[in-house]
Specification:
Elements (H helix, E strand, L loop, with lengths): L1 H27 L3 E6 L15 H20 L7 E10 L3 E5 L4 E5 L7 E9 L5 E10 L7 H5 L7 H16 L7
Parallel strand pairs: 1-2
Antiparallel strand pairs: 2-5, 3-4, 5-6
Helix pairs in contact: 2-4
């Protein structure tokens, strides 16, 4: 009987520990983000070049979802960020190159990146902290090319830089709360 009580206590202690860890993990979560891609067929320029369009778009959206997710980690616990992308114009333009005429994205000075999205921050009680229509354009992206691209070799360095700079401005001006 004593062994049964000890086992029951051990099982209850283990269950309590697991529950506390689960609760702690929930409380320790950083801000979260939900990204919605609204009518991508109408976006200004997300052309794939030689790649399969559906595969390119899936990879593109996954990449940008990751960019927004990294930024959401800088938000306080319990804050939920809703982003609805309404337009995207990638830096550069898809054009034929070489003698084969293969299409590739070529980045030139006049082909600046731009993105439009709605941004909505909600607290843990689903009360709106901030809501805005955001339109970002970076006409000077080309002058920063070397600094933006650097050694990281990101897939969309110009667009990521532009979004990161905007997010940082929101937090520095206290429009967005900091962790």
């Amino acid at each position: 009987m004593n062994k049964l009580i000890n086992r029951t206590i051990q099982t209850l202690a283990a269950s309590a520990f697991i529950t506390l860890v689960a609760i702690g993990a929930t409380v320790a979560n950083a801000g979260e983000v939900t990204v919605t891609w609204q009518e991508p067929a109408k976006y200004t320029d997300i052309r794939a070049g030689e790649q399969n369009r559906e595969q390119f778009e899936a990879a593109l959206f996954k990449n940008f979802d990751g960019i927004f997710a990294e930024l959401a980690k800088k938000l306080p616990d319990g804050v939920h960020w809703q982003v609805t992308v309404t337009d995207l114009d990638l830096a550069g333009d898809v054009m034929p190159v070489g003698t084969t005429g293969r299409e590739m994205r070529i980045v030139k000075q006049n082909d600046r990146p731009a993105i439009s999205f709605t941004s909505k921050l909600l607290d843990a009680d689903n009360k709106v902290i901030n809501e805005a229509q955001v339109e970002l354009k970076d006409p000077n992206f080309f002058s920063r090319s070397a600094a933006i691209i650097g050694k990281d070799r990101k897939t969309y360095p110009y667009e990521e830089f532009m979004i990161n700079q905007w997010f940082e401005r929101q937090q520095n001006s206290l429009v967005f709360p900091k962790k």
